[in-house]
Design goal:
272 residues; alpha/beta; two-stranded parallel ribbon
Length: 272
């Protein structure tokens, strides 16, 4: 997200108007996850405004609608995919990998359906797949088959890291809701194409998140050295300090590999 008024005066300047949240956000970060498309398509005028308010290097990482992934379960969805692409195509190069988030019930027995779906996707559009079935995280033949399929189709695998979230028992209702909603799966730092996507589900306490995000420094730096274009997306249960955590991660990563990161990330305000 970027439209969070609680970030004004924290991660974003205190003078930021509500109508200027996206402009202010893109001064700090190079990408954003657009979760709203999972539930419905934005208006054409909204897409045009997003394009006008962001620079050419900014990236939107949207999700395919759940009507495709969960309702149709990838079957007879070509018209819906075409409509999605038409609506968002005005963003052009601002489009980062679009994610297909599959439900936990979508398992190895459905890989043929996934392959049929992926081979029909537009080839000039970046795609990523997020799976949640436990067999795809077991290191066996099912996971190997999934990774091989994604590599053949040049599709990235979305990597979910919720270790920080689950490292402590929930302290309140907001954290309890996050524990109930977020997947608790093994971390698979596998790049199957050129734009790996990491969804880091942090703890509301930045110090606890920092205990875990350091594991990503050598992986991300290796990807950058290989010429890949990774995107890391930070979330917390209440998302209040998520942008501050992302800024700290950027700054610490830049301190380890500044020659690989351009432009340099902006200064980090006092993270809480």
């Amino acid at each position: 997200m970027w439209a969070n008024k609680d970030w004004i005066g924290r991660a974003l300047p205190a003078s930021t108007p509500l109508a200027g949240l996206l402009r202010a956000y893109q001064q700090l970060f190079g990408a954003v996850e657009g979760n709203t498309t999972f539930y419905g398509l934005p208006r054409e005028s909204t897409v045009a405004r997003w394009a006008a308010e962001t620079g050419p290097s900014f990236r939107f990482l949207f999700k395919l609608p759940r009507s495709i992934s969960h309702d149709r379960r990838l079957r007879d969805a070509s018209a819906d995919v075409a409509g999605f692409c038409r609506r968002l195509s005005p963003l052009g190069d601002r489009l980062g990998p679009t994610s297909l988030q599959l439900p936990p019930s979508f398992g190895p027995e459905h890989l043929a359906v996934l392959e049929q779906f992926l081979v029909q996707l537009p080839k000039d559009w970046p795609w990523a797949v997020e799976v949640r079935h436990h067999d795809f995280f077991a290191g066996g033949s099912s996971e190997q088959a999934l990774d091989a399929l994604l590599a053949r189709c040049r599709v990235d695998r979305v990597i979910l890291d919720s270790r920080a979230l689950f490292s402590r028992p929930p302290a309140n209702e907001v954290e309890a809701a996050a524990h109930a909603a977020k997947p608790r799966l093994p971390v698979r730092p596998t790049a199957t194409s050129t734009r790996p996507v990491v969804r880091f589900i942090g703890h509301v306490d930045t110090a606890i998140s920092a205990e875990h995000w350091g594991r990503w420094f050598p992986i991300v730096l290796r990807w950058l050295e290989q010429g890949l274009e990774p995107t890391l997306l930070f979330h917390t249960a209440d998302n209040l300090n998520a942008p501050l955590q992302a800024q700290r991660f950027q700054a610490e990563l830049a301190g380890l590999g500044s020659h690989l990161i351009t432009p340099a990330p902006p200064p980090v305000p006092g993270a809480q």
